[in-house]
TrEMBL record:
Protein's gene: secE
Compartment(s) of residence: Membrane
Keywords, sorted A to Z: Cell membrane, Membrane, Protein transport, Translocation, Transmembrane, Transmembrane helix, Transport
Source organism (scientific name): Brachyspira catarrhinii
Protein name according to UniProt: Preprotein translocase subunit SecE
Keyword Electron transport applies: no
Length: 106
């Protein structure tokens, strides 16, 4: 019995070694660098978007609690820029969805 368990263990270890070093395809150094740069860029973009969203929500909440939101928005250039950015992102999102939907329906 001990002999069978030993064989199973060694067979399993051999299969793991084959899977790791013979069957798996490892990325090249350049592929890893490219993917790392893409991840860092996406992190920066996402951080900027979340920071802008946090600023906008904080600004809107404070102006709602203080009183007139319309006059506060019109007096703040940053708020107008944020609104323009959100509208642009909204339009881009739905344009991409529209293009993808029409590309697959042909």
């Amino acid at each position: 019995m001990a002999e069978k368990k030993k064989n199973k263990l060694f067979n399993s270890l051999d299969e793991i070694k084959k899977e790791l070093f013979e069957r798996s395809v490892w990325p090249t150094r350049q592929e890893v660098i490219n993917q790392t740069v893409i991840v860092i860029i996406l992190l920066i973009i996402t951080s900027a978007f979340l920071g802008a969203a946090d600023y906008a929500v904080t600004f809107i909440t404070r102006t709602l609690l203080d009183g007139s939101i319309i006059s506060a928005i019109m007096s703040s250039a940053i708020a107008l820029v944020l609104i323009a950015v959100f509208v642009a992102l909204f339009v881009i999102y739905f344009a991409i969805r529209y293009v993808r939907k029409n590309r697959y329906n042909r």
